[in-house]
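Customer escalation, tier 2.

The customer says the design service returned an amino acid string that "doesn't look like it belongs to this structure." They asked us to rerun it and document both sides in this ticket. The original structure tokens are below, unchanged.
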């Protein structure tokens, strides 16, 4: 037996397994006209979110950061200047350089 709850004020959906409290809850998302699970969202007991796709993609988000079994792509964009508005840790790239925001509104460029 599973439990589905939510909070209409903040729009949350809570999924759980009443018969097995140690089971990792997941949600399967199916594409239109298919009977297979195209995407599965898994929340394990360690607070890690895993997104699996039918094509073999795997994305994990946890306290250590974001990892993927495939390649990771950035949108190409060039900051206006080295003091352009940015948040520490923000990354951008263009065809020649990688731009890393090392502190608020302070960028670093790497070829």
């Amino acid at each position: 037996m599973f439990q589905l709850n939510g909070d209409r004020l903040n729009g949350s959906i809570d999924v759980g397994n009443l018969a097995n409290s140690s089971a990792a809850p997941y949600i399967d998302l199916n594409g239109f006209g298919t009977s297979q699970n195209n995407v599965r969202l898994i929340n394990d007991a360690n607070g890690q979110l895993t997104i699996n796709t039918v094509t073999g993609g795997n994305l994990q988000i946890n306290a250590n950061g974001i990892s993927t079994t495939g390649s990771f792509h950035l949108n190409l964009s060039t900051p206006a200047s080295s003091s352009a508005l940015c948040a520490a840790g923000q990354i951008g790239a263009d065809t020649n350089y990688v731009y890393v925001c090392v502190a608020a509104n302070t960028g670093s460029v790497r070829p």
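Tier 2 assessment: The sequence is consistent with the input. DSSP finds no helices and ten strands in the chain. The radius of gyration is 19 Å. Sent an explanation to the customer and offered a walkthrough call.
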